[in-house]
Design a protein that fits this description.
Elements: E1 2-6, H1 10-22, E2 25-30, E3 43-46, H2 53-60, E4 65-68, H3 73-86, H4 94-100, H5 103-112, E5 128-132, E6 142-144, H6 147-159, E7 164-168, E8 173-181, E9 186-188, E10 192-196, E11 202-207, H7 214-230, E12 236-243, E13 248-254, H8 261-269, H9 273-278, E14 293-302, E15 305-308, H10 311-314, E16 317-324, E17 331-337, E18 343-351, H11 354-371, E19 376-378
Parallel strand pairs: 1-2, 1-4, 2-3, 15-19
Antiparallel strand pairs: 5-6, 5-7, 8-9, 8-10, 8-12, 10-11, 11-14, 12-13, 14-15, 14-18, 16-17, 17-18
Helix pairs in contact: 2-3
Amino acid sequence: MKIGIIGGAMQGMEAAYLARKAGYETLVIDRARDAPAFSLADEYVVMDPTGHRDDAARLLGDCDAVLPACRDMNTLYRLYEALLRLDVPFLFDFDSYTITSSRSATNNLMGNIGIKTPKRWQECGYPKMVKPASRRPAAGLTVAHDEREVTNAIRKIIGAGDEPIVEEFTLGKNVSMEVIGNGEEFMPFVTTEFFLNERCDRKGVVCSPDILAGGMDKEFRDAVCKLAESIDLKALMEVKAVGTENELKVVELNACLPTETPTAVLAATGINMLSKMIDPRCDKNNGNAGAGASSYEHFMIADGKMTACGETEFRRIRYPHLERGMFGADEMIIGRTFDNGPLLCAMINAARDTDELDRKRAGCIESMMDEYRIDEFTDSGQSLFKKSL
């Protein structure tokens, strides 16, 4: 089977990795000559698929399925129209993505169907979360601790041409769950917990069946399926929430291929979301079968220091390659920045439980520090380790 992947950045890397693990051939198309997914693919073509729609459609027409790994709706719509004539499956749900690409629309949706969400700004104190209504990264997220910080964050978002959303900042576990649907049946996967650095940038993911207590995990699973059903989901969607000791609040929906969490779920459960997207059968009870524990995390080595870095730094990687067993890790995606600067890597590990996983990860980090003669390891923000190193 051959999978065509539109986009060669972070999502493209995720798609190429999942396809390789499933035994599929891959063709990646991106307009950037140094798109990082190229070096993980079997074939790649440097092309602007918008300006060369017919050429791109001809290439993708030889594939068994096409997976969008970008968020350029103009590009996706034009290719979708061309591929319809060629009868090539397009693994994407435009209607669901249109809804979930707007935080305002998803907040309204969740309110209408009774899903718990953060309080609106008028109903809560500080700190507050300020974020753009769209998913464009220009403005980013801000945790504001006073009125001045809220005002500055709002101005930044408006200056980027977006609409600000101000709501309660809930401190707790940042969790996510993917779900695949065919419009009638929906299959949720195992819960993952993601960790942020001091800039609210995701730096790593842990997958385990015991991240949330049993009752809360079921509540999350039920909410995810309810949301998927409400939009007649016909592809893949990621649902993010914050869990405290007493309650769970859903904060975001995203109906496209996410990064990191599909790889972590595969490592922990053996279930490949890409394979499930291609197979239209959905089993709502089998998305976390046989779950162990796994982690996916980013690191940067520069100037004699090792840092647990976020996605913003990691997406600078160029010509990454996959290594097995390096520094004792199960797998590593490793490369350097475009100017042959800092070393960047994504480390993937699996274990029977989170205690064993922590020991394995600590050993890998120690081996990397020894190899590169590093004395200082910086891990700002939320730590993936249950206990500090």
